[in-house]
Amino acid sequence: MRFIRPKVVMGTILLVDDHPLRAAMRRSLLETNAPLVVRAQDAGEALCMVESPEFAEGLSLVVTGHQLSGITGPEFVAEFRSRMPDVPVLVLSTVEGADAEYAEIPDVIYSETRSADELRAIVKQLTATNEKRTA
Predict the structure, then answer these.
(1) What is the pTM of this model?
(2) E-strand spans in the chain?
(3) Rounded CA gap, 107 and 115, in Å?
(4) Which of 3-12, 46-55, 57-66, 92-101 has the lowest mean pLDDT?
């Protein structure tokens, strides 16, 4: 697979989603809170992207689901956290009780929201908090 890294600007959100339609909807919502939203089609691609210092430098938030192809959400988040401990992760899921699987991983926010407005508010708060942390 050939991977072309997009030019990343401060405040970039990485969206990890293997479902094209859902990813397009989420990307549209997230773009109201970030100058750039970059989609990774799976956890492996996301982890490869953050290996690039240029990409990692501008990253302010990762948004992912709990159920991923080939790896569990908690496995991905733990691996991501080991590489980038200061970037918050927002896990979106409606799987009952799944939030407990993230309890031991720092800076993980778990949300069961189905509301576009609520998602925008959560992302706005997280990106504002991260900007203050890195400034």
Answers:
(1) 0.86
(2) 12-16, 37-40, 59-65, 89-92, 108-111
(3) 22
(4) 3-12
Distance between CA atoms of residues 128 and 114, nearest Å? 22
Whole-number Å distance between alpha carbons of 58 and 68:
24
Query: CA–CA separation, 103 vs 74, rounded Å?
Result: 10
What is the number of domains present in the chain?
A: 1
Phi then psi dihedrals of residue 85, to 5 deg? -70, -15
Segments forming the whole domain that contains residue 29: 12-134
Q: Does residue 51 belong to any structural domain of this protein? A: yes
Model confidence over 78-98: pLDDT tens digits? 999 999 999 999 999 989 999
Residue 35 belongs to domain with CATH number: 3.40.50.2300
Which one, of 68, 67, 89, 87, lies nearest residue 77 by Cα? 89
CA dihedral 104, 91, 89, 35 (to 10 degrees): -170
